[in-house]
């Protein structure tokens, strides 16, 4: 068993795999239950009309469950899925393992050169594009302009964490179920640890020093966790340790959050038809501490084909449909330009109609400001902004996420959580051979 395989399987529970081969014209697509993917399923009439010979079956899962199932399936060659929704973390690791099908033979009209360089680069290994981006994102501040105005405050375009704390205090009125700030607390390497790792970069923290020694015992991580816990305990909603992306989105749409710092892709949903505060939302860059790094991440939810698929050609046809320029135009025609999947194509950001969307510029500025090759204030041996691009991180990030979520729930102090994280990560890195 390879080190990569052992690390990945160590991060996830084995699940029963279906051994049944799929018919050639049936493909199974595994995806996350985020709004843009749900919207895609509602537009399948277009795909079905163009490709009546391909039947698509959907497996739509909560983020942590999707990752667990897809990781197990691909690492064991289970062949359960023909198209998988994965991210910027998995693609380089799985591509190097030979677990993904190259997409270099997508048709010329796909225009792979139109993909944003930062996004395309993260999905390419040794010259092979191993996944096509469905949407790309960074993170930013979404805030209630009306509540800021009522508090006599103005949100800077590039706020500091001190600005965020001041605004959160001014906007909180718990008697009205109005909370100054909503942030991820739900455990998971792609849930609370995506937020906290990106946040820690702006505090000068890092997961590892240049020699792969864990850094949770350093003052920068203590400053990060102390600030986060205080912010959430003072000005956040109750039960925040259970809240991930979708839970906070619902709270914001219901008018219960003064601010939400999260994925730029949420902008169309907080300003959309399901939002009770759609006309009151402003946007700002993710906060910093004046150290040269902002607390924003870089991610792309992308579609890839496992090498174990027995319907690769049909899967490629589907990926082409779901991630090409025509799909963006389809969404625009049905739902308006504000609801087009963002952050994947240069041409979208030169489109005059899309330029009118209030969050378009803030989204692309946020994406362009994240640097996976130099994510932290101090030097590090790894690539990745809100994750560390090593196979072990999926397990490490989830375990540390559980520790920090427990601290948010009041089950342990910040100091206890950091000491526990330091011990756990050190033991794992020793076992994996990174340190002595």
Automatic annotation (TrEMBL):
Residues 1-23 form the signal peptide. Gene3D superfamilies: Periplasmic binding protein-like II. It is found in: Periplasm. It holds the Pfam family SBP_bac_1. Keywords: Signal. Belongs to the bacterial solute-binding protein 1 family. This is ABC transporter substrate-binding protein.
